[in-house]
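Justification of computing resources. Each target in the renewal requires a structure prediction run like the one illustrated here; the chain below, 338 residues long, is used simply to show the kind of job we budget for.
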Amino acid sequence: MVSFVSNAPVAYIIAVLAKHGFPSGIPVFGSASKPSPQSLQLVLRQAGVTPDNTLSVGDSSKDVLAAHAIGIPTVAVSWGYNSRQQLECAEPVEIIDKPAALEDRIVAFEKGKITYKPRERPKGYINLPRSEFNTPSPAVQLLKVSDYYKYVPGQRDPYSARILTFKESKEHTQQSIITDGATDDYFYDGRILRGTTFRSVLTEFMGKVRSLLAENNLEGETLVIAAPNSMPEYCYRTDMNALLAFNVARNQEHLHYIRERVISRVHPKEAAHSGGSRFGDEQYTTLGFKEIELPKYDNVVILDDITTSGSQGNAIAKLVRHGGMQGKLYLAVLGKTA
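Resulting structure tokens:
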């Protein structure tokens, strides 16, 4: 049995399938909060099938990782959301580059030739020992550009809206952001309207973070590192926090940036808006410190877009210390939830 799972409404999915010649009656699951292990398990229960009899076909690293979480083999297709290189990081069973090859791989699964293989990665990361999960976090000074106000119907804070535009930009390629002038378009009154360019928001925040650091008179040499999102960086088209950190430190005396990510989300973390907790063990079990030799710095600035409770910043600070980094610790954010 073939089923389609999408974030889109069911009626929209059916219309798209019909447009491409698919017969009616194919099971469709819409508004599925895809991709996540929880939504995938729900789909399997509703479809009445078991993981052992399921093959996931997806075009994103998120699809692959969601299937890994419940032991489902994945065939990834390289002509969709993520590049082949990004898909390889998520470790699907196979990656195919041509649509014509998909039917052959489905038949191979039905014949038992494709089975689940656990992830071998991530390697080369230091994880915080469980014995340190409940130990006090090192001192971290919060530096905020401004407050962040959650969206309320009828109320719109312009600065908070630009932070959301920055967050949205990770769904676009770096070339489209920097070179092609991609915009945060939106639907209004029956029309698609052109929004703010992602590049202008990146440039604005680069300047604001530089000013924030200058105002706080950080003494000595400062390393700027990017905080991770809820998924590994290869799940997004662009690692925006890393791109911002690079631009903040570029050509700045006493500011430094390392192109290799120092802190990564090595395992997916359930996003807070989907019901996941910002607290507890999940921060520690999903973060990793890259095993690389680093110079000594007087300050380490953890750069993030939004903070609410500060739990992620504290978890990163604890991991940074465990990884051997010294110096004063700062959490610099574009917005602190008001």
